[in-house]
Structures are given as structure tokens and as C-alpha cells.
Predict the 3D structure of the following.
Amino acid sequence: MERIPILLKILGFLWALPNTIIGFVIGISGLLIDRITKRHKAKIRFAGGICLFERSPAIVQNSALSLGFAHIYAREADEILNGCPCKTHEDQHTIQAMVLGPFFLPIYVLCGLIALCRGGSPIGIKNPLETGPYSLPPRPWWFD
Ligand SMILES: [Zn+2]
């Protein structure tokens, strides 16, 4: 993310805004659920221009969700999974959202269906939008 020129980052931010708004709603919902249920574990912080909702009860345990410039983690963003920090994987989805904009979610669902047809998980490495982020080092796309 640091290597993207500022003008492209601003345009990408605006293009990804619909995704970011949905991510914000989910992230804030997690904070509210956390307070209502008196868990007091959820937290919010910003890193590299991205809003990180950590220890969120709004998503499935041990999972993470990236919607534009909002990342929601069931655990910590810096936790190492599959050889890299979880945030590094999710940053690749933010770059995808900067390119695909409002089409990110429908394309992600379509790619999930492709993964299912290939005998994999819709959120696993056989999803073309997960192949790059699961690579080491993580990258946005399935190609170099
Ligand atoms: Zn992913």
C-alpha cells in the first residue's frame, strides 16, 4: 500500500468507498455488540490509512473480513497466519477493492462460486481473489 502514488490512492479510496461504508457498518456493529454484551474486548485503530476493527464479535470466530478501507478481525490484525501478518493478507483485498470498486463484492461472490465448482472453499485459495493474497509474499492478484 505504501508504494501506491497518493493520487491513485485517493481515486482508489473514492472508488472503494461503497465497500468501505459496508465494512464500517459491520465494524461499528461489532463494537456495539461488544459493549452491549459487556465483552469489552473489541477495539478500533487506524494503520496505513485503513480502519482496523479487532477482536470483533460481528464476524465468524478466527476469520477476517476486508471491505475497502475497513478491516474487521475476529482476533488481532498483526497475528501471523499462513506465514504472514493477517493484515498483510487483508491489505491485498483493499487493493482489489481500489481497482474493482463497487464491483468487488459481486466479483468476489462469483469467484467464490468458481472455487466451489473447483472443489474448494469459496473463501479459500481456489477463489481467484484469494489466490494472490494467500501467496507468499502476498499479492493482490493470482498473476504477477
Ligand atoms: Zn482473503
The pocket of zinc ion is lined by residues 89, 93, 130, 133 (CB under 6 Å). Helices lie at 6-15, 17-36, 86-100, 104-117, 128-131. The first strand starts at residue 43 and ends at 47.
